[in-house]
Every structure is written in structure tokens, then in C-alpha cells.
């Protein structure tokens, strides 16, 4: 069951992240960082070696729970995000997935339309450890800290499934979609259905909100963006809301550029994640003021620190001071990021004028 409006209202006073996501003014913006649980933290590196592989790490609830909670203990972020990976979905659809140290994900590439037809139904048994992690984290979070679940958007997940790995511009998936549009649509439809089920189960298990990561949205021309990015994410949000009318959902179309306004207006998402390249002045002019924003500090600035970081943070805070805004990066935090720069970021945000 989704929370009733009265339950949502009662959470506002305790969880600033949720209040902001619902469009309420809360003063200083709440903050969390994409990939906030990761290799930049010494405590993460200490537990990572306990798992034989990254996928095993994601599927070991004790380790995944600890990784989720580590940045909350250290920094007191306003939201925790489930420690997992977008590729657990193709894994649960029967595609072999692995992670090579220093090289990223490896999948048995879907090189023909027949390979798509051979995919199985989503296995909730395979994903059971993820839901156990959610249950464990939920009982350990401070009452004021929100909990975010997530999935990858169909286009982004499909691009890995087709290529078998990440590529600079996801050309293998783009070519496949041009050559075999019906088969590619079948894959997208399978991922839409799987994502609705996966996100709904995360909500039922205990997350407060979910984010849909379309990390490769920016490589597509306009017509393909409409077909493979905007429409599928819209269908996922609609499908989740059919089951959970009050579900809080963030859409992150990285590289979406001029499509951001239509993404915000048409998908039904509660908030839109902005990437590093988006100009705050453009957002202020073209994205309706009632749209909740999330983002979008350059992760490299967080590595540089000092004056560059101070100025960049001030620019974002100044641009969105009068609208609902969740402070975040424009993409995931990088492993080289000094912990003290994250601490400085939080001091600056929390000492800013409301």
C-alpha cells in the first residue's frame, strides 16, 4: 500500500528530503550525492574486499546494508540510497552479468532479436537479497533520513544488454534499434514491465522514494529520445503509480539538455535530476517553477575543492534559492574525491541563508 496523504504530511517535519520532493519549501536544500556509498570512503574500501565480486557485494545484504549506511553515519546526508546496481535487472531477467575489476560490467551481449526473445521473466528470487537489504537499512536509518531506491531506465539498461558493456556513445544499441526496431521495442517493453515490478516491490519493502537513472539519454537524437527515453520512463512512472498512487519518483535523464522541460512536464515525475552540463540560468528560464529540481554540481569540482568548489556551490544555491531544490551532483561522486571536500560541501550548504 502507498502512504496516504496524511502519512506523507506527517513525514514532512521529520524528513526534509521528502518535504522538498513533495514541493514544499524547507529552507536550506536537503542534500545527498549520487554514489555517496563508494570507493572514496575508506570504510567502504575496507568492506569491499569481503565480497568475491561486485555483484556478490550487491547480493550480500549485510555488506550492502553497511555500504548504504556508511555515508549516513559519516556525513548525515538527508537521504540514503540503496547500495545496488542498475544491472541487477538484466541479471534477474536471465542475462549473465559480471563485473571485471577496473573494467566495469560485462554481460553476454544480446546480438540478435532471438536473444531478446529468450530472456526470462523477472526473477524475484534472484532479487530477494536486494529487498532484504532494504528491510535491514530501513530499521537502521535515523528518523529524519529518507531512503531512496532506484532502477536504470530502459534505454540505459538496454544499451548495456545489447553491447555487453559500456561504450562511449552506446553505438551498438543505437545501431540495433535502427536495424531491428521491433525487437528493440520488445526489449524496452520487457524492461518497462520489469522496472515497474522492481520499483513497486522496493516501495512495498520500505523505500520512501525511487530514482530512475537514464545515464545514457544524451546520446540519442530527438526522435529516438522520445521513443526510447521519454516514453518508457513515462510508462514506468504511470505503472508504478497504478500500484502506488503517492509514490515519489525522481527522473534523471543525463544529457537530456533541451528535453528536460518535456521530461518534467510529461513523465509525471516528482523531481527532475539535472546533469553537470545544464546551465542554471536556462533551467530558471525554461523549466516551470513548480518542478522540483535535483543537482547538479560537477563531480570534478568536488575533487578540486577550495575556491572552485565554493564558487560552484554558491552558484547553484543562488540559482535555486526560491524553488524546491535537492542539492546533489550532476553525476556520481568520483573515487578520487577527498572526504574533507565532501565535509566542506555540507558545511557550506548547511550554513547558507535559507
SS-based class: alpha/beta
**Biggest sheet details:** 7 strands, parallel
Q: What is the strand content?
A: 5-15%
Spell out the helices and strands N to C: HHHHHEHEEHHEHHHEHEHEHEHHEH
The best one-word shape is: globular
Brief rundown of the structure:
This protein has 354 residues and is of the alpha/beta class.
Describe this structure in words.
- It contains 17 helices and 9 strands.
- Strand 7 (271-273), helix 14 and strand 8 (292-297) form a beta-alpha-beta unit.
- 50% of the residues lie in helices and 12% in strands.
- It has a 7-stranded parallel sheet with strand order 1-4-5-6-7-8-9. Strands 2-3 form a two-stranded antiparallel sheet.
- The chain has one domain: TIM Barrel.
- By secondary structure, it is an alpha/beta fold.
